[in-house]
UniProtKB/TrEMBL annotation:
Keywords: TPR repeat. This is Tetratricopeptide repeat protein. SUPFAM superfamilies: TPR-like. It comes from Oricola thermophila. It holds the Pfam family TPR_19. TPR repeats lie at residues 151-184. The lineage of its organism: Bacteria, Pseudomonadati, Pseudomonadota, Alphaproteobacteria, Hyphomicrobiales. The keyword Secreted does not apply. PROSITE patterns: TPR (PS50005). It comes from the Bacteria.
């Protein structure tokens, strides 16, 4: 799929401006409910399975995350100064929605390894996960090497700008990251969520569909796609997408919650009116 070029930002209508706070809240609530669904399951003791041990944390299933959490908790207890164990443990904690604990782990790692750029970058992501954006941005920018820029750090930096209302700056950062890593689904997903937070659902869906088609896309990318499809009132399609990542019961619960919130806030009507106005002007 061809990416939409980022040009000048169009003027926003009153309906879209009114919808933005609701959309931002909806993204946060739906993301939290999905993460909580993973975190609420009972923790399985024992070591990580051989298959799971070679997977990126972001690509682990809920069961593998539970196993990884138990295993790395023990590893970290044995050797808290091992930076690789600390970073992986913190990442697993974040994936299980234990952000405060992840930050505590990375704060200690940053004290133990004050000059390590990998640790500094992971510390910045942990800070962002609890809303400490100013400190997070400082840590991530200090971890970046301007002579050899890391697309992952650029994408993380863009996400912080988005979460602090600087979407134009965020998208410029994402575009720079895409020149380093063309077609990377996590960057495309961040771009999609950037437009979602602004209320531009059609453009958000384009980016998220492109991201979801990548063979390296993780579960969060497809759950973001399900969210933006649901926000456009296509609930059955959203549920079908969500069922690829969640149990049928969880997928239905998320979509039912989304439908209820849209009904209560009348947000779908606002978005629909905006789309009808755009169509009439074409």
């Amino acid at each position: 799929m061809r990416r939409i070029a980022n040009g000048a930002r169009p003027a926003s209508s009153p309906q879209r401006q009114e919808a933005r706070p609701f959309l931002r809240a909806m993204v946060i609530l739906l993301a939290a409910s999905t993460a909580t669904a993973c975190a609420d399951r009972s923790i399985t003791t024992g070591s990580i399975s051989p298959a799971a041990s070679h997977k990126a944390v972001e690509q682990m299933t809920a069961t593998e995350l539970e196993q990884a959490l138990a295993s790395y908790s023990k590893s970290y207890e044995r050797n808290p100064k091992d930076k690789n164990v600390a970073m992986t443990f913190a990442s697993i904690l974040r994936m299980n929605n234990r952000n405060e604990q992840a930050l505590a782990v990375m704060r200690k790692a940053a004290i133990d390894h004050p000059d390590d750029k990998q640790v500094l970058a992971a510390y910045g992501k942990a800070l962002a996960s609890v809303g400490e954006f100013t400190q997070a941005l400082d840590a991530i920018q200090r971890a970046q090497d301007p002579t050899r820029p890391d697309w992952r750090l650029l994408s993380a930096e863009g996400a912080i700008y988005d979460q602090t209302g600087r979407s134009g700056q965020a998208r410029r950062i994402y575009e720079k990251a895409l020149t380093l890593q063309p077609g990377e689904p996590t960057i495309l997903s961040n771009l999609g969520m950037s437009y979602l937070l602004e209320g531009d659902l059609a453009r958000a869906e384009n980016y998220l569909r492109e991201a979801a088609q990548s063979p390296t896309a993780d579960s969060r990318v497809r759950q973001n796609l399900a969210l933006v499809v649901g926000l456009q009132g296509r609930f059955e399609e959203a549920e079908q997408i969500a069922q690829r990542e969640l149990s049928p019961q969880q997928a239905q619960a998320n979509v039912d919650y989304l439908r209820k919130m849209l009904s209560q806030q009348n947000a779908w009507n606002m978005i629909q009116q905006e789309d009808e106005k755009k169509t009439a002007q074409q």
